[in-house]
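How it folds:
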Amino acid sequence: MNELIKHIKQTASARLAAPVNTQKIILCQKELTQNGNAMLPDAFLVILHSFNAVSYDGARIFGINPESKNFMDIVLANQMSPLAGKQNIVILGCDEFDYLAYNTETQTYQIIDKEDLEVLEEYSEIEPAVKHILKI
């Protein structure tokens, strides 16, 4: 995980939002579950403690109420997605064509096609899934 965070921070054109505090994470988790979505996985929380959102080459890793309008709030993204209310899914990011989601039922990170919602790839760890969506 440390390698992934270091790699993202060193990517010159990646825009990063400042890390988020634990209180915001707790409020976000509550809001996600109240909206019928899954809670954020622990590995994603590590990312949020390093930076609260990433935007790189048209792809995004969502954050919690990021202050910049360049970033998408994770709760809002989950409310607006066609996967809204799926209790075992939480959307963590996206690119032009796909979502990056975590499936609590299978405990996998999934790349899901935005058009037909088909699972294209599954990863057991967050690092390759984030690299896939950011194309780094």
Summary: The beta strands are 15-17, 53-56, 59-61, 89-94, 98-103, 108-113, 119-123. The first strand starts at residue 15 and ends at 17.
